[in-house]
Amino acid sequence: MTRVLVVDDEPQIVRALRINLKARGYEVDAAPDGRTALDLAARRHPDVILLDLGLPDMDGTEVIRGLRGWLTVPIIVLSARQESDDKVEALDAGADDYVTKPFGMAELLARLRAAVRRSSPVEEAAVVRTDAFSVDLAAKRVERNGGDVRLTPTEWHILELLVRNAGRLVSQQQLLQEVWGPSYAKETNYLRVYMAQLRRKLEDDPSHPRHLITAPGIGYRFEA
Question: Of 90, 119, 148, at which residue does a domain stop?
Answer without folding.
Answer: 119
